[in-house]
Amino acid sequence: MALLIKSKCTNCDMCEPECPNNAIFMGEEIYEIDPNLCTECKGHYEKPTCQSVCPINNCIITDPDNVETEEQLLEKFVIIQGLA
């Protein structure tokens, strides 16, 4: 499952530098997450760092349009890191 930043984002700049896959970027109004790069930090950390550093409660959620299994996320991690 990729993550999604909700519209209540305040653009605090906390999440972007924490993303190990560079999946977070500034969109037209708020930060956004590229679902093709988001692994929910699988392969890097135990839980998503963007959620850990976000000061807004429940601002970064599971993207209902990009549901993936843990196995799929780990496969994506391997591909992104060039380990395949």
TrEMBL record:
PROSITE patterns named among the record's database cross-references: 4FE4S_FER_1, 4FE4S_FER_2
GO function term, MF aspect, one: 4 iron, 4 sulfur cluster binding
Keywords: 4Fe-4S, Electron transport, Iron, Iron-sulfur, Metal-binding, Repeat, Transport
Domain of life: Bacteria
UniProt domain 4Fe-4S ferredoxin-type: residue ranges: 1-29
NCBIfam families for the chain: di_4Fe-4S_YfhL
Name of the protein in its database record: YfhL family 4Fe-4S dicluster ferredoxin
Organism per entry: Vibrio eleionomae
